[in-house]
Amino acid sequence: MSENTGELRVRFRILGSFECWDGSERVRVGGPVHEKVLVTLLLEPQRVLPVFRLVEAVWDENAPATAAHQVRKAVAELRQRIPDGRNLIVTEGPGYRALTTPDQVDLSRFTQGLKQAREATAAGQNALAATALREALELWRGPLLSGSGGSVLAAASAALEERRLTAVEQLFDLRLDSGENGELIGELREFIDAHPLRETLRGQLMLALFRSGRQAEALEEFAKVREFLIDELGIGPGDSLTELHNAILRNSPELAAPPQATVAPFTPEGKPSTLPYDLRDFTGREEEVRELLGFVAEAPGTGPLIIAIDGMGGSGKTSLAVRAAHQLADDYPDAQLHIDLRGFTPSGQPLSAGAAAEALLRALGVPGDRIPDDAEGRIALWRRTMSTHRMILLLDNALDESQVRPLLTSPTETLVLVTSRALLVDLDAAHTVSLGVMPPGDSVALVEGVLGPTRARAEPEAVAQLAELCGHLPLALRIAAARLRKRPRWTVRYLVDRLRDDAHRLAELNSGERSVEVTLRLSYEGLTAETREAFRMLGQHPGTEIDVYAAGALLDKSARDAEGVLEYLLDMHLLQQHETGRYAFHDLVRSFAQNLSRGSARPAPESGGANAGAGDEEAARAVRRLLDFALAATDAACDMLFPGRARISRPEFRSAAELPPLDTPDRAREWLEREQDSLMAAVSLAYRWELDSHVGLLAANVVFPLDLRGRLEEFRELSRTAITAARRLGDPALLRLSLSNLSVACWKLGRFEEGIEVAEEAFELAVGLADQRGEAKDTGVLGLLLSALGRYHEALPRLQQSISIKRELGAERAEAESLTNLSNLYSEWGRFPEAVEAATRAITLSRGIGSVDKEVEGLTELAIARLGMGEVDAAADLLGRARKLAVDVMSPADMSLLLALSAEAADRLGESKSATEWAESALQLGDLSGAPMREAAIRNIVGRLHTRNGRYSLALDLHQHAHDAASGVGYRVEEAHALAGMAHALEHLGDHGSARVHRETANKAFEAMGIPAARAA
User: Fold this and answer.
1) Does position 11 have pLDDT exceeding 50, yes or no?
2) E strands, 166-318, where?
3) Are 545 and 534 spatial neighbours (Cβ–Cβ below 8 Å)?
4) Residue that wins the pLDDT comparison between 221 and 375
5) How far, CA to CA in Å, does 49 sit from each of 95, 144, 421, 529, 649?
6) At what angle do helices 67-81 and 32-43 cross, to 10 degrees?
């Protein structure tokens, strides 16, 4: 029943989601029609199915008039896409026949396995029957086409499901007959939860409980099923289950487990021990060792004491188990046995239970002539021997629970330590110890222990970096330290520099027979083909963490199905989880995943990459799906948070992926905040793949939250990347959008000359494209930039033109933005009534479209105008309203400006305590150095407040810092205000000469900008 089918390259998997494989390459056969036609043929191989049967399978009773033609077309395309498809699907009479062999189709192998099990049972070969059933059931992945095939295929699925459940019940019977009892309880409960009406399963659970000494629980299980059946069906349990219940009540001897092979247990001579040596330089894991030893000391009961240690490859599971076993050896004097179950071993198959039992018996010194020839007999002898001895059994490198269970028995005084890369959640009564990576301090101590204290302490910083680059994984740390020890001329820094190359990091972590890459590959190759493909696709994700929605996009699955894949990889320790719902690769596992697809991750240009190979196509499709998802999700989030914004619509990038819930501002804001770094990494990923439309469109969305959080340098760099991509693509509309965004970033960063150059290019493109919205945007940005340079007379007509076009287009958000900017210009000129008019209209427009961020900006500018008019009470009221709305919708710098203005209003109203609090908050809210315009304005406002209150030294210091910020970027108006503020402070401090010089310089600047003397004062 193995997946290895020799020379047969083309294989089909229909028990679950449909898959076609040509060797190790997956074949894409087409869409839903193709899959339904092919699955229907494969359900009955070697039989001719008429076209009308295939039509029914695809469309049920809703077939279109062209259905027969579509079926024939699908068959023709299947023949082209499947290797040797013309000989695989042949036309005969009124229909088609699939000429597959039993080994090519998982369903045929499933059926064959059930037949072998029946024959073995009839011949009394129960162990062979159980093996055949296990292998058959391992092929089952779910209903046909994962339940999406329609009523015809659903009926076939139901019949197959009944066959599967019957096989499951038969296997449980065989396992009960072989002496398994307590080991089955967890598995039985899982099946009963999924199929609560199966009385056979209920009876098997009751029997397993009874034979495990849990009679009361067995009776309770009957009460549960009786109540359930009455509630659901109005009937009680059947005769068989009722008779079993009565027998359990009587404690009937007939229910005892069948007698096993009557081989007497073996008593070893001496105290055999096959434990590996305990590492002298064992480092760290003190908490895990204490937990393990404490559990052993306090554990009650008579069954096997089982401790399951799981963790990723190289995390030190075996070392921990060996250390604990040596420390406990005196308490288990009969024997201490270690066996490698080879669950994850190069070029090897996992050890069967029979082979493991034989190896353990031989380790105890059992003569060969006393060991039974059949696997069932060997297991029986081992379990009888185990039940009569007090020993330690270390089952190392287990594949899963099913490999371990046959080797356990009850009662026994044996301590069983199991290590596995998989989380053994179904190993009943086991205490679990999960190993993560080492703490940084322990990592450094491990390097020091292997390398030696002299060399390690000579480069403490480099050793810490080495530990970080090794991901604090014990195997990687030991390999790195061993390489350094073998090369005394190498410094730690030299190896650190070599490890910084992510593409070659795993190759560096290789020493003799030990290799991190080989260790990780063993875990990878232990996955199913479908899960390996998922692992490779998840490796394309560029961020440090991935959620179920992004994973769903990469894997082309629903979020729930993607979560199942992520959780499985988490259980296999190929993923980590630091927060519920979010998953991450260990750094070295990420390197491994990316190395797997690095050869296939070549650029896939917008044309589609016609020459790409199968690996390229897999990676390219995953990347495109992820980027389409990111674009759709950021579109939805930005539309929610920034209503009325303009964006380029590109229907060809519509995503079919499930989006996270983004239906409220809070949800949209939380998602953007959480995914910010991953989204920026997605832009870089799109750029590397030369998916330049995605670069520009996604960057245009991502800059919104960057601006909101004051990450202005990243805003600028992202826009520059988008510009490069748009030029490479030759898309003028995308180039104009990206240039426009860069000009805004330049304005906020005080890079005014660069911003003007960029905005002018954007404007020229807008004119050439007849893009009125673009013309309006870029004209308005030019007005902003000119205002910042104090060129108000040039700025005014541009702002007015921008407002006019936006009003004509009905672009209310954009118009509100420009009106706010116009209000600011009028306030600087002292034309306060016009400033009030512009700000008031901006507020009205913003409220009309629900744009809270623009409403706050309008309220702030209106308050500035009211302060200028001496209407301080009104200004304070406006600022209070703005503060209530501003939470989570303003950048830190803009919020600081709002607080500074609030301090000014409070001070002018005589509310000195509030004024002081607002002023301190304005200066301390965040780092203003990245927003020089806001820094200059805020320090000048607070400086004037201190001057009014006689704190002239404080005022002078603030105005000097404001002058430095403003002059550094050429922000003319605040540079002049800073000089004026310095003049006032110096005058009061007695430095009249310097005060006069600063005042004269400020007045000249105000005059040049057209700012009236009264406003300047």
Assistant:
1) yes
2) 305-311
3) no
4) 221
5) 5, 18, 46, 30, 47
6) 80
For residue 583, the surrounding DSSP H or E stretch is: strand 582-584
Token pair listed for 35: 């899959």
Burial (CB < 10 A; 0-12, 13-18, 19+), residue 363, is: middle
Q: What is the pLDDT of residues 605-645, one digit of tens each?
A: 444 433 344 456 778 889 999 999 999 999 999 999 998 88
DSSP state of 657: S
Instruction: Give DSSP secondary structure letters for 401-439.
Output: HHHHGGG--SS---EEEEEESS--TTSTTEEEEEE-PPP
Rg for the chain (alpha carbons), in Å? 37
For residue 927, what are the CA distances in angstroms to 708, 835, 961? 14, 30, 14
Residues 411-451: tens digit of each pLDDT: 778 899 999 988 887 777 688 898 888 899 999 999 988 88
Rounded CA-CA distance 276/273 in Å is 9
Q: Round to whole Å and give the CA distance between 673 and 683.
A: 16
pLDDT of residue 562: 93
Residue pair 798/833 in contact (Cβ under 8 Å)? The answer is no
For residues 337 and 394, is the Cβ–Cβ distance under 8 A? yes
Q: Which two tokens stand for residue 863?
A: 């308050």
CB atoms within 10 A of CB 942: 28
Q: Which residues pair with 335 in a beta bridge?
A: 391
Contact 477, 447 (CB under 8 A): yes
Helix and strand counts by DSSP (H, E) for the chain:
46, 16
The residues that bridge with 432 in the sheet, in sequence order, are: 308
| Helix ranges (DSSP H) in 98-150 | 106-122, 126-138
What is d(CA 411, CA 413) in angstroms, rounded to the nearest whole number?
7
Q: How many residues does the chain have?
A: 1017
Residue owning tokens 């400020």: 1002
Q: 37 vs 14, 45, 77, 244, 562, CA distance in Å?
A: 12, 13, 11, 47, 26
Least confident of 479-493, 584-598, 914-928, 996-1010: 584-598
Cβ atoms of 103 and 125 within 8 Å: the answer is no
My answer on whether omega of the bond before 411 falls inside 30° of 0, hence cis, is yes
Give the strand order in the sheet containing 89-92: 49-50, 95-98, 89-92
Distance separating the N- and C-terminal Cα atoms of the chain? 91
Instruction: From 251, 319, 236, select the one nearest 285 (Cα to Cα).
Output: 319
DSSP-assigned letter for residue 392: E
- Give the phi and the psi of residue 447 in degrees, each rounded to 5: -60, -45
In angstroms, the CA 600 to CA 594 distance is 10
Tokens standing for residue 523? 């875990």
Q: Is the CB of residue 583 less than 8 Å from the CB of residue 576?
A: yes
Going by C-alpha positions, the residue among 207, 206, 103, 110 that lies closest to residue 167 is 110
With H, G, I as helix, E, B as strand and everything else as coil, classify residue 491.
Answer: coil
For residues 938 and 936, what is the distance between their CA atoms, to the nearest angstrom? Answer: 6
Give dist(CA 667, CA 673) in Å, integer.
10
User: CB-based burial of residue 305 (10 Å sphere; 0-12 exposed, 13-18 middle, 19+ buried)?
Assistant: buried
The DSSP 8-state label assigned to residue 273 in this structure reads B
Predicted confidence (pLDDT) per residue in 832-883, tens digit: 999 999 999 999 999 999 999 999 999 999 999 999 999 999 999 999 999 9
State the pLDDT at residue 826: 94
Residues 6+ apart with CB under 8 A from 661: 667
CA 501 to centroid of chain Cα atoms: 24
- Measured CA to CA, the distance from residue 1002 to residue 1017 in angstroms comes to 10
Which pTM was predicted?
Answer: 0.68
CB 515 within 8 A of CB 484: no
Q: How far apart are CA 733 and CA 717, in angstroms?
A: 19
Position 519 scores a pLDDT of 84
Q: What is d(CA 493, CA 500) in angstroms, rounded to the nearest whole number?
A: 11
Q: Give the angle 51-53-55 at the CA atoms, nearest 5°.
A: 70
